[in-house]
Write the structure tokens for this entry.
Amino acid sequence: MERTFAIIKPDAVGQHMIGQILDRIETAGFQTRAMRMARLTKKEAEGFYAVHREKSFFGGLTDFMSSGPAVLMVLEAPDAIRRWRDLMGATDPAKAAPGTLRKAFGTSIDRNATHGSDAPETAAYEIGYFFSGIELI
């Protein structure tokens, strides 16, 4: 079993898509090991996305991620990181495959409904950023 970190981003939360996305997560065979809704502060978003600090999109990304509530989750399944990224689809919803979350719920490369870890090291960091060990089931 492997764990990954996932976010239902403020755009999808604001459009009342939480239930539909959670249904797709469960249907895909993921177990939810931790979940909570939070509204990130600008500072929390900047810390979480610090790896992108020097990129041109950093300010817009952190403004967006602190613009409203998001659902933070730890998902578990065999090969969870790859499977979650496959379920999410390409970062740009216009390029995402049919049936993926971003194709179904994203509206632009900046408002693409979900986030997911891209590697085991990233997953470990991202899970630890938002959840303490006692919160993980």
Summary: The mean pLDDT is 95. The radius of gyration is 14 Å.
